[in-house]
Amino acid sequence: MINSCPPHCGTPTYLSDTYCPICGDTLDEKRALNNVQDLYPDAFNRLKAHYPNAQLITGQITKTHFYKRTKHTKNNTNSCALWFLTVESTDGIQYRFNVDAENKILVNLKVGDVITFAEPYAVKVPMARDNNTPDAITNDILLDAVVLHTGEGQFLQHVGIHQPINPIEKIITYYFFALLFAVILGGFITLAPHGLNFFKGNFWISVLLIGAPALYFCHRKHREFSQVFEDEKRVYQSFLDILPLMQGVSLTDLGYHQKVRPKGNDDILCDYCDHRLSTQAHYCPHCGKSQHNNETDVDTVIVDAMVASHDGELGAESALMTAPSGENVVTTENIVMAHAATATLAVEPSVTVKPRRNVMDVIHAKMAEFRYDHEDKIIYRHALVPNEELKVTAWCYMARVIEREASVDINRTSVTTTTTRTDRYGDKDTSISTHHTRDVSFNSKLLMRTELGHEFELWLPEKMRSYTDVGDILMVEGVKLEDKSGKSHYYNPHYLNMTKKRYNREGSNLGSYRNKPILPQLIQLSLALICLWGFIEIEPQMLAIFHQWAWSSALINHLGYTIFTALLTFVPYMLFCIVIKWLDSRSRDWYKNEAIRIYQPVWALRDKALDDIDELHDLFTKLN
Ligand SMILES: [Zn+2]
Ligand SMILES: [Zn+2]
Predict the structure, then answer these.
(1) How far away, in angstroms, is 31 Cα from ligand 1 center?
(2) How confident is the model at residue 345 (pLDDT cuts 50, 70, 90)?
(3) According to the model, what pLDDT value does residue 310 have?
(4) Membrane-spanning regions, if any (predicted)?
(5) Nearest-ligand number for the alpha carbon of 24
(6) Per residue in 395-411, pLDDT tens?
(7) What's the pLDDT at 549?
(8) Which residue of 147, 305, 421, 529 is 20 to 30 Å from 322, comparing CA positions?
(9) How far is the centre of ligand 2, averaged over its atoms, from the C-alpha of 260 (Å)?
């Protein structure tokens, strides 16, 4: 067993360290993580003897993706919940595979968890799929045995995919068919009209004569199958023997407790490489630079003092030059005193120890840059009715996932369909079929904390749920609109996962709010009715009036009485409708612009977050 990380200068060192944090020396001892294979080489060799391609890998989860896989058959639709994991082994090799997520413990798997998995057979060829999309499932390997190593102990999940199958059912089938064969053949030759005379009337004797060799054959098969089963069981036992060993290995045995230093809330950032360090560290374990900024600062202070004293000297000298001779005689002592005085004056303000940058402060300050909370009013201008004043609140902020409570819900439903068909003779044929559906859904409740220490619960849209981990920092933005009646409307809570560099584009927009007052619609309807009434009732009088003039008289003769009256009554109505429509679309445009005005600062912050996403991602990953 390799001692993963010996202490240096009496302080623990970690695998991620290159330099001793106390003396600054390079740590060149052989340091590595252990894995179950190294810890139990004999058991692994026994497994290899039976399964030459067997794998026993220990590693840390670097990526999780939750998804469901659905299988359709004629009468069933079955979905199961799976994790598609990317695991980096202790040797730095990346493995990708699926783990059953319907287990209460495994559903809470997260990035950083350490697992060991055992596979008796070689991992098959990956599925041909696009590897570039972030959620691509590149293979369908379901692991047979997985152990999750936690600080509180180990959890084993053994699916038993490769478990040898007991041949008893197969043997029973053999016996059954042998008997059936004997009875049928026996019956056939006994009853056959031109059969063998010897067998005539001796049904049981013929069954016995034919059955005996068949039974012997079955017995032989029975022994053969049982032997194979026993052999398979013995071979599989070498795999089963590994499982308790895997389960007995703790995080400490593996050396993962020494992989990275446990984080402290007062950790600081290295001034040279931005690596996260303990306040106790004299040297950065990552770049090896001294963290006592006095050492570098003292030099500049001395230089400052020298420059200052030089200035002082010049000043004193010029005073001496300008001093009228004989009166105030300036002695050398005075010059020295003046020199000392100016020097101290100049040095004092520059002896400021550069403040150490606390990691949490730096991250919180960054998160605070994206905080926006603004209350405003929007006037919704209406045609014909008074304008509407809407109270609008827009916000955005960043928050960190500090806990995730995940579970999988399983829903089973069956639908029974009865189909009745009538054939051409009028007979009814009824068939009943039942379709069973098993569906799964992933629930995860997140506990979030903002830089101000405010905690709240959050339920993300389904797509984001599947990849948001504990420790991720999300940017949340949203808008609330309160209408005249005091009813609140919420629009597009948008989320940006800064740690995963992924953005959720779902959600509705504030601009989609619409309130159509009833009054203009009523006026429109009444006007339509009035016009209709006018058309029917006043046609003769109208015609009498319009016949007075030659032009209108000619128009009436040209169009005919009915069309002329229809035009006369419906044209004003149409004009009214067009005006109303135009006013309405104008007020909508105006409202939409107002909505954009409200969103602008939030969008500006979102753009800023997207522009700086790499930098923010690097800073925020220091948290985990
Ligand atoms: Zn040291
Ligand atoms: Zn450094």
Answers:
(1) 15
(2) very low
(3) 47
(4) 172-192, 198-218, 518-536, 556-583
(5) 1
(6) 999 999 999 998 898 88
(7) 84
(8) 305
(9) 15
Whose structure tokens read 């059953």? 100
The answer to whether the CB of 154 falls within 8 A of the CB of 250 is: yes
**What are 144-147's contacts with CB under 8 Å, separation 24+?**
144/118, 144/119, 144/120, 144/239, 145/117, 145/118, 145/119, 145/239, 145/242, 145/243, 145/246, 146/99, 146/106, 146/115, 146/116, 146/117, 147/115, 147/116, 147/117, 147/243, 147/246, 147/247, 147/249
Amino acid in the structure at residue 374:
H
* Higher per-residue confidence, 128 vs 150: 150
Question: How many helices and strands, by DSSP H and E, does the chain display?
Answer: 14, 15
Q: Are strands 94-100 and 76-89 parallel, antiparallel or unpaired?
A: antiparallel
Q: How far is the CA of 291 from the centre of ligand 2 (A)?
A: 8
| Ligand nearest to C-alpha 286 | 2
Ligand 1 centre distance from Cα of residue 13 (Å): 9
Residue 20 has a pLDDT of: 92
285 alpha carbon – ligand 2 mean position (Å): 7
| Cα distances (Å, whole numbers) of residue 143 to 123, 250, 599 | 9, 20, 48
Whole-number average pLDDT of the chain: 81
**Residue 325 binned pLDDT confidence (cut-offs 50, 70, 90):** very low
Question: Is residue 213 scored above 50 in pLDDT?
Answer: yes
From the CA of 9, the nearest ligand is: 1
Identify the pLDDT of residue 298: 42
- Cα 624 to ligand 1 centroid, rounded to whole Å: 26
Ligand 2 centroid from CA 295, angstroms? 15
Ligand having the closest approach to the CA of 11: 1
Angstrom CA distances, 475 to 135, 226, 469, stand at 21, 62, 14
When pLDDT is cut at 50, 70 and 90, the band that residue 367 belongs to is very high
Please name the residue that has the structure tokens 């007052």. 517
How large is the ipTM? 0.96
Q: Ligand 2 mean position to 327 CA, how many Å?
A: 61
Give 620 Cα–ligand 2 centroid separation in angstroms: 17
Strand 428-450 to strand 76-89: parallel, antiparallel, or no bridges (unpaired)?
parallel
Structure tokens at 548: 């007075």
**For the CA of 7, the nearest ligand:** 1
Between residues 474 and 508, the one the model is more confident about: 474
- Rounded distance between C-alpha atoms, residue 259 and residue 9, angstroms: 18
Amino acid at 313: E
Distance 362 CA to ligand 1 centre (A): 28
> Are 94 and 61 a contacting pair, CB within 8 Å?
no
* CA 362 to ligand 2 centroid distance, Å: 16
- pLDDT greater than 60 at residue 346: no
Ligand 1 centroid – CA 25 distance (Å):
6
| Residue 82: both structure tokens together | 């799976």
298 Cα: distance to centroid of ligand 2 (angstroms): 20
Q: Which ligand is nearest to the CA of 271?
A: 2
